[in-house]
Amino acid sequence: MKASSIGMGVLLTVGLLLLIHDVPAVAAEPTPVRIAGDVSGHIHPAVCVAKSGAIVVVYSKSDFKDLRLSRSADGGKTWSEPVAVPPTEKLSLYPGSLTTLRDGRIVHAWNTWYKNDKDAKSRFVQFAVSSDEGKTWSEAKSLPKNPDAESIIRHPFVERRPSEWLFSLSDKTVVYDPKTEKATPFGDGRTHGLVPVVRTPKGTYVSGSGVRSTDEGKSWDKVAPFPKIGDNGWRFDLATLSNGWLVASEVLGTGVGGDRWRLVVSHDDGKSWDFDRAVEYYNPGRPIGGRACPRAVSLDRDTLGIVFYDVDPKQTGGPGVFFLRVPMTKLQPKGQ
Known about the structure:
Elements (H helix, E strand, L loop, with lengths): L1 H20 L11 E5 L8 E4 L5 E8 L2 E8 L10 E2 L8 E8 L5 E8 L9 E8 L10 E2 L15 E4 L2 E5 L4 E5 L4 E4 L11 E3 L5 E3 L3 E3 L7 E2 L14 E4 L5 E7 L7 E7 L12 E4 L12 E4 L4 E8 L9 E8 L9
Antiparallel strand pairs: 1-24, 2-3, 3-4, 4-5, 6-7, 7-8, 8-9, 10-11, 11-12, 12-13, 14-15, 15-16, 16-17, 18-19, 19-20, 20-21, 22-23, 23-24
């Protein structure tokens, strides 16, 4: 009896040690981290990952001015104090996008209002380049202006080659040469509108307008069903992940910000989308304050990062810009 009791005690002790050391705790749902507060208006954050792995976020602190930049060196867990973004301090502007080039430089593009040209529409695209992860910037340059239509950018461009940047703008879809400063129509010349266009590792182009091209944009095939983009492309996000998957961020519900957001993934180069395993990642149980505009970026092969804003004044801390880490395991195809 005594030996039996001792044996049982040993088993219980061993079992407890196994429980403590070998069985992982149930992972908590990802929690948004606040990057900044005291924001209002068209905040529209943009995000990119620098060559070092640092995450760079740019957002507008108040309507049409006061762009701020914050940086994270630990995968989005903590953030630096937001600072002004040169050379935009004195401009009246509308937020745009961030793109990381293959050589590690970062390109910040935004929308500027014309000052004196009464014959032109209200906005055109400008950009600046940083070689030190957003600490300093080049002088601003302008994309070719369109006097007959407003030209707006809201999504990162695709670097086809060092001399070919593919921009999907509200008035045109063009390939821009940063050396010659010339722009030419992309592929078949169609305008995709204010939606993202991305390229997969296989060289396929997928447009937020719901079409896909395997021949450098010369022809396009419709993809259906395709993630819901809403009435405006600025609500929609589409990104290529480091493992080759495509992820779309859908804004669901009424109002410009919806009331819940989810991720829909394509595991087959954009041919189809896994709606059955869509991942809801933000649902505060109320209408989301603001125009939504979540932006996703691949942090590494294990983690997706999403920057967004919510200006509901009743939330803890009030209006803010937030960053959320989402494990890639949540986006695995069925059976894996």
